[in-house]
Design brief:
This protein is mostly beta strands. 7% of the residues lie in helices and 44% in strands. A five-stranded antiparallel β-sheet has the order 2-1-7-8-11, with no helix packed on it. The chain has a four-stranded antiparallel β-sheet with strand order 3-6-10-9, with helices on one face.
């Protein structure tokens, strides 16, 4: 039966979500400044085997795809994300440096995406395990626009758990 004919069912809405993280300082807790997030996705490679005149396909290795997060710069997000690089152990090279070194573990370990219903109750939760921010685009500036500055994040993770 379709949801529009059953008053007890309520489809999930795109605009009802939260992002939570267990990272350091300002990266920890609810990300109320989040504007958009892509949900986890996976891809399974397949192998083909020929037996006689037939091809048989078998599932192979599962790969979790990166997610994209768009956040609004509240005036502190750029600084917080840049400082997070140092907490993760990435040092900006200078004349005496041998390059970028990875030393610490200031990254987010678990990133959660929660879908909520109209009353705020969680109806779907994705935990992205061993997550870390792999790319940041700090937005663009334009004299002809009155839009908010938007920061785009790419997050990599090892696997996702749906609950």
């Amino acid at each position: 039966m379709a949801f529009w004919t059953d008053s007890k069912l309520s489809p999930t809405r795109q605009h009802r979500f939260l992002i939570q993280a267990d990272g350091p300082n300002k990266m920890k807790g609810n990300w109320w400044w989040a504007k958009e997030v892509s949900k986890p996705a996976y891809n399974i490679e397949s192998e083909e085997y020929i037996l006689g005149n037939n091809k048989f396909k078998y599932p192979g290795v599962l790969t979790w795809e990166d997610i994209e997060i768009s956040i609004v710069d509240t005036g502190q997000q750029t600084d917080s994300l840049y400082k997070n690089l140092n907490k993760m152990g990435y040092l900006t090279p200078d004349a005496s440096s041998k390059g970028i070194e990875k030393q610490g573990n200031g990254s987010v370990k678990t990133l959660s995406i929660l879908q909520v219903d109209e009353s705020g109750k969680t109806v779907e939760k994705w935990d992205l395990m061993n997550a870390f921010i792999s790319a940041v685009q700090f937005g663009s500036l334009n004299y002809t626009s009155d839009e908010l500055v938007e920061i785009r994040l790419t997050v990599k993770y090892d696997w996702a758990v749906l609950s």
